[in-house]
């Protein structure tokens, strides 16, 4: 997640017991959720995240050899799972960064002749902040939670759609570079998509889901009141999946991740899902943000619980997720 340094002095002041924050979603399941037999595998979540947050990638700073290794890893994953490049190759070159840098973009074509013209974007940023400049024993900001965890979940969802063909709408799978440099990857990509008259339905951006919250809902959504996405996800899962986190609104996190670039460009529901709540993880932009602290069962369960929602988003005959007026 981009630039929360100004928040750090307030994080510990903000901490209260997990039961003190109420869930204001008020969403009720008024239709039967889709039942998903597909199972997300813990071992695959673990293996993927372990490599993406490994020392070998040296913190994945945009424009470095470390993020280049991550790009190759993500390309290989998409190719192995028969997910086609959206452009001529998987690499979408950033137009707003001096060094060579790339978003990694794949597409899973929808199965419906009409609905496939609409796109659901599943995204996360695969860059991080690289190496510490001062001399110390551990210099690598591995970025396991931020945001290798989100990339891992998006990759697992992409594999699900590739294997099941459960999407009538087309799925754009995006791993952004340059998020930590000022949302550069998403800003660059939306300019190209706008010129193509890209028909966006909605975007789900996954940001920092490596550890669970102690609340009565699984995750929160940024810009909770901007659309009905939270309510619809809860309806689609039949669970209290998404809740309202007051700290998200206070710190305006809606504007601090790659969903915002898409919202600005398209004016459609484009929001981030997260389980980092300022109380459950002490190592934001810190060398201790490492794989060993990640809760693999939680990431697996998070991804599994979202599958009915992303499936319903990808198959509903009408555009049910809308902006609030």
From TrEMBL:
It comes from the Bacteria. Residues 103-304 form the Peptidase M28 domain. This is M20/M25/M40 family metallo-hydrolase. PROSITE patterns: PROKAR_LIPOPROTEIN. Pfam families: Peptidase_M28. PANTHER family: METALLOPEPTIDASE M28 FAMILY MEMBER, PEPTIDASE M28 DOMAIN-CONTAINING PROTEIN.
